[in-house]
Amino acid sequence: METLPVKIQIISVIGALGFLAMIARLIVRGKLREEYAIVWIICTAILTVFSIWRKGLEEISLLLGVFYPPSLIFLAAIFAIIVFLVHLSVVNSRMQSEIKVLTHEVAFLKQQLQKRAGETAVSSGDEPVSAAV
């Protein structure tokens, strides 16, 4: 099997390091949470390793019985994307549950506030005031 040309190897190393710098910048600016940054840093490390280790992909694909090494990359990428999407679905479900609980708490507090405003108005002889929250 042919190995990667040196130009492509250099471009892939520079691209991986540039991506790592972009992830670091997003972390510093607070636009990317650390738990997600770890996934991207691991992906970047894997890309960098395969960019430097030219025959690594071929050796691993032969070890796994994959005839065409780039198909191993696509298989791994598709698997990583599916795992990441499942993780995001779990996070989204958890956030929706928390929003539902918070909405119930706000509605309950609003109801209590209106009830107290009504009791205060009855005891003072004024008309009940609706509580605006």
Describe the structure concisely for a colleague.
The protein is mostly helical and 133 residues long. It has helices at 6-29, 34-52, 56-64, 69-124. The chain is elongated and about 90 Å long.
What does this structure look like?
The mean pLDDT is 87. The chain has helices at 6-29, 34-52, 56-64, 69-124. By secondary structure, it is mainly alpha-helical. It is elongated, with a radius of gyration of 28 Å. The chain is 81% helix and 0% strand.
Helicity range: over 70%
Portion in strands: under 5%
Low-pLDDT parts are none
Number of strand segments: 0
Distance between the termini: 70 Å
SS element count, helices: 4
- Written as H for each helix and E for each strand, in order along the chain, the element string is HHHH
Instruction: State Rg.
Output: 28 Å
How is the topology of this model organized?
Layout: H1 6-29, H2 34-52, H3 56-64, H4 69-124
Helix pairs in contact: 1-2, 3-4
Task: Record keyword descriptors for this entry.
133 residues; mainly alpha
